[in-house]
Specification:
Elements (H helix, E strand, L loop, with lengths): L1 E5 L6 H10 L3 E6 L2 H10 L2 E4 L5 H9 L3 E4 L9 H17 L7 E7 L25 H12 L3 E7 L1 E3 L7 H11 L2 E4 L5 E6 H13 L6 E3 L3 E5 H12 L3 E4 L4 H5 L15 H7 L8 H7 L7
Length: 298
């Protein structure tokens, strides 16, 4: 297939490109910069210049492809609600180029959208239209397209990691550096799911190849790592003490991360593994955190 990939030079997208090419697909990667275009050509992909804010460029890219994978997202969390709404508009634009075709569209969301409630694993079969996470806007847009006959499926992401980046844990480490303490909320037993970036890239490839309209795939290798364990490894790496923070002080200590750090976000991928024959093999989150070079973050 010729696959249009947004976010093609990003943390996950740049790993999806070689995964798709190795499987015999062609990749049309979207980038906004000349440096990104150079990187895509060097990887063996075609280049599509475009912006998330330019909906016409998105429609033009999707119209040239047999399938679309959408991984791009504006990660300015100070504008999280607005950026989730922007993602809704991006998804609608991509889908509008696919109406009346059988060409699949794979969009991205978060595992928390499948939450069954505190202490229970998030699963692929759960969809709560009233979910308080603003990222629900992405899946709502997907559902609207599905109703129009577009073959939409969703990849829900946990904390995606390697030894350089680890999802929300990367900005959490910036807080550790600033505050000189590695903190967790309460007893720190709330859990975060995770998966290595190469395992996630493989899942995107399998999901677009076997795309089932309406399916939701949880890209989860580890169901949940306790926040206290994460804080302990960060503290060791940075050489700072580890401490508990009361929930009512989380916003003051963590800033915008305060809305996430105390959440129990454990998630299952049992259905996804069976549906896609996907079995993660990469390092664990704590292994990558222990191998990370903390000298540049000191």
């Amino acid at each position: 297939m010729r696959i249009f990939l947004t976010g093609a030079t990003g943390f996950i997208g740049s790993r999806i490109v070689p995964e798709l090419l190795a499987a015999g697909h062609q990749v049309l990667g979207m980038t906004r910069s000349d440096a990104g275009a150079e990187a895509l050509r060097a990887a063996g992909a075609e280049v599509h210049h475009g912006l998330l804010e330019d909906l016409d460029s998105l429609r033009a890219g999707a119209a040239q492809a047999d399938a679309v994978i959408h991984t791009a997202f504006d990660h300015d969390f100070s504008r999280f609600v607005a950026n989730c709404e922007k993602d809704r508009q991006v998804i609608k634009a991509l889908g509008s180029a696919l109406v009346g075709t059988r060409r699949p569209l794979l969009i991205t969301s978060g595992t928390g959208i499948g939450s069954r409630g505190p202490g229970r694993l998030a699963t692929e079969d759960v969809f709560d239209a009233a979910h308080p996470n603003p990222r629900i806007a992405s899946e709502m847009a997907g559902n609207e397209l599905l109703a129009e006959g577009v073959a939409v499926a969703v990849v829900r992401l946990p904390q995606v990691h390697d030894t350089v980046r680890q999802g929300l844990i990367s900005p959490l480490l910036d807080v550790v550096r600033e505050k000189r303490v590695s903190a967790y909320v309460g007893d720190g037993q709330n859990r975060w799911p995770a998966a290595h970036v190469l395992d996630v890239a493989r899942l995107y490839r399998l999901a677009i190849e076997r795309c089932t309209p309406g399916a939701r795939y949880n890209a989860v290798a580890e169901e949940g790592i306790p926040a206290r364990d994460i804080a302990q490894v960060l503290g060791e790496g940075m050489g700072v003490p580890v401490a508990s923070i009361d929930a009512d002080k989380a916003a003051d200590h963590f800033g915008w991360l305060g809305m996430f750090v105390g959440l129990d976000m454990a998630a299952s991928s049992e259905w996804t593994r069976k549906a896609l024959d996907w079995y993660p093999t990469g390092p664990t989150l704590l292994e990558d955190l222990r191998r990370m070079d903390y000298s540049s973050r000191a």
